[in-house]
Design a protein that fits this description.
The chain is mainly beta and about 160 residues long. It has one domain (about 25-155): Immunoglobulin-like, CATH 2.60.40. About 10% of the residues lie in helices and about 45% in strands. The protein has one helix at about 1-20, and strands at about 25-30, 50-55, 65-70, 75-85, 85-95, 95-105, 110-120, 130, 140-145, 150-155. The strands form two sheets. Strands 3, 5, 6, 8, 9 and 10 form a six-stranded antiparallel beta sheet that branches. It has a four-stranded antiparallel beta sheet with strand order 1-2-7-4, with no helix packed on it. The longest helix is centred in the first third of the chain and has 18 residues, at about 1-20. It starts with a helix and ends with a strand.
Length: about 160
């Protein structure tokens, strides 16, 4: 009985370790809530406020920096940007191209920015993360935690 219980507990531990592994390709995205990842849609009538969080999930190589841009449609007005206290360097702006680095490498979800927005009408619209406008950059990138902090494309 004890052996069967030990085997069962060992299998549960292995399963939880496996599910906690980072993906081979990092991810960056927008959400409307703080670490709840509930919903990517909002609706309103006329002029209404909206908050977005930018979240990064490192690859299995970790992450120390990100390079991207946010594409805002014409009916969205940008407002206050809050920077995560773990951020050590920012270059650029969210709407013209952003390079952001953290003080330390990260191996789990992390948000570099939180932003308040205002939508001016009820026209269906999308706020999107796109690649940095630098012509030498071909994709949204993270600098991983390997020696020399090489960059990698993310989703």
């Amino acid at each position: 009985m004890n052996r069967a219980l030990f085997t069962f507990i060992s299998l549960l531990m292995i399963a939880s370790i496996t599910s906690a592994q980072l993906p081979p390709v990092g991810y960056i995205g927008l959400t409307l809530d703080d670490f709840q990842f509930q919903n990517g849609c909002s609706s309103g009538v006329g002029f209404y406020p909206l908050e977005i969080w930018i979240y990064c999930l490192p690859s299995d190589e970790g992450m120390i920096c990100a390079k991207f841009m946010i594409d805002y449609p014409p009916n969205v007005i940008q407002s206050t940007v809050t920077t995560n206290p773990a951020v050590s360097v920012t270059l650029g702006t969210l709407d013209t191209g952003m390079s952001v680095c953290f003080a330390d490498c990260h191996w789990n979800w992390i948000w570099p920015f939180h932003q308040a927005l205002y939508v001016t009408d009820s026209t269906p619209t999308e706020v999107l993360i796109v690649k940095h406008p630098d012509p030498n950059i071909l994709c949204v990138q993270f600098a991983n935690c390997n020696p020399g902090y090489p960059t990698e494309c993310v989703r």
